[in-house]
Amino acid sequence: MTSIMKPVSLPGVVRTASLLTLCIVCSSADLLSQGVRLNVARSQSEATLSWPLSTNNFVLESARSLDAADWEGAVPMFTIADGQCAVTLSLGEGQRYFRLRKVEALASPGVGGGPPTIGYITAVLRSDCASAPPPPPVGEIAVGSNYVIKTVADGDPLDYQAAQQLVSDSVFESLMPIYCGLPDEQCVTNRVQWNLLTYDLGGNPRISGSPLSGAAYHYCAVTNGYIVAVVRGSSATLPPLPPVGQVAIGTDAVILTIADTDPTDLEHAQELATDEVFESLMRQYCALPRGTGPGEVSGQPQWHVATHAADGTPKLSGCAASGCDVHPCVVSRGYIAAVLRSDCASAPPPPPVGEIAVGSNYVIKTVADADPLDYLGAQQLVTDAVFESLMPIYCGLPNEGCVTNRVQWNLMTYDAGGNPWISGSPLSGPGFHYCRVTNGFIVAVIRGSSASLPSPPPVSQVEIGTDAVIMTIADGDPADLDNAKALATDAVFESLMQRYCALPRGTGHGQVSGQPQWHVATYDPNGTPRLSACAASGCDVHPCVVSRGFITAVLRSACTSAPVPPPPVGQTRVGTDYVIRTIADGDPMDYTAAQQIVTDAIFQSLMPLYCELPDVGCVTNRVQWNLMTYDAGGNPRISGSPLSGPGLHSCP
The whole model's pTM is what? Predict the structure, then answer.
């Protein structure tokens, strides 16, 4: 679908296309002279507004129109990262305008006890799923099930740089023992980020960011003892012990602290250090370069378990529970692999060189041990012949999940630890490849009186001929015409009519008469025609409704997609959350002409129908007038506003 939004000509406004219209009012000369600019980045459902962190104070405000008398604060809280202030807004909130306004700095901060007079400046330790907690009085600490917060000062909640001077690392260090004493539930783990939060006098969050030392994770200290899994070669030098759950790299060694528990119980430590733990460490060990220096490995490690006292003093050590065998890295440089996988399959683990691994939704073959960053070299190794040899295996997978009869050929490289590095296509490109029909082609045909049919396409694909559009519905018995007619339902033909009617009128290839019949045909696996007949619903001619395109007026809720198909010219259709009327048969790409046809009077005539819709879902008492054009097949082409603009219109 092509979507084009006609912008309203408003000086100093930048507009984004959506049912919500976000308008960014250009900053004043005063703001621009200070290098402050309000930026917008848009995703499918959200918009992020950002501006530079400055020594001056700025507040983000919004209004429903440019001439509004009252601008108000746009959001309760914004975040700070990498020197930028940012807020994220939903695109389902109607038209809004935004601006930055400079505010005067408030009084100097105070650190005495009691309720604040300016705002709360706080240090917060909270789990990844904890919201901003309510701030306590100045100087006090509040503890929740998944957070610890201390109000450090009474200060300006918009002066973030001053707040960073007040909330020092020593404040956070003093709170770490309290946080580390929380139960391990509700996302609480042994690591936490230090979060500087400011609140206004009402206790509403204003700014969230990091202290001057940055946004790194901080870890709870080990209190009982370190239980460590060690992957090490014969000449290993071990690194310092990492926090629980973290990995450290030495010389010919990779270690992981598994738990904080009794360092005198080696048998329990061996139970904790499972083969699965060691396999995960092998991915990191084998990915390191070969050599004898720090961060390098021999590629011939053993698996060991070690315990240390809480101060790091070594206590006990032994082989893994599975033994003292050497576990050599499978490749020395990297895996170069050919992969066939469904659209929802993740990168599979690579097998040894020359071997094939088959999963429920993938097939992978490692073709070579080579540099995983040399993609051009990998493309020379993984040829189309390799992929062709894997197609029968992939096509034999059960049609479950996302597995279908088509797949892209995926060239993947992995480092020597089996971690994916590059994913792309072979030299022949990224096109889809289809499983062969083995029984016969069952085909739905839309054809005019002078049609010339193309060869049958792969299952579920469409081909276009002269005055004809065909689709292979299934791989089935070509001698069973009754079953073929049962498979070629009217819904299948209706979907093909959208393709047929969208083609230009004429007598050449890719052109149509607009007066087709619906037929069913079968072919042998080699493409030889077998049987044909009219659709189960008959041999009637099904003329295209329009010859050029649908020009429509649409009233729809903020979360409603384009109504498909549009009604015939002059008719109105009402859905649960939309009203649409086709006004004319015209050029769907001539938007200026469409605006002349779809007048405000037409939208006004549809308002009573929309206003009678039940208030369910996203339907409210106000709606934007949406001019939409569709091609002759009923496929949406352009979406925008009438000449009067994109403003909201309210029900009486």
Answer: 0.65
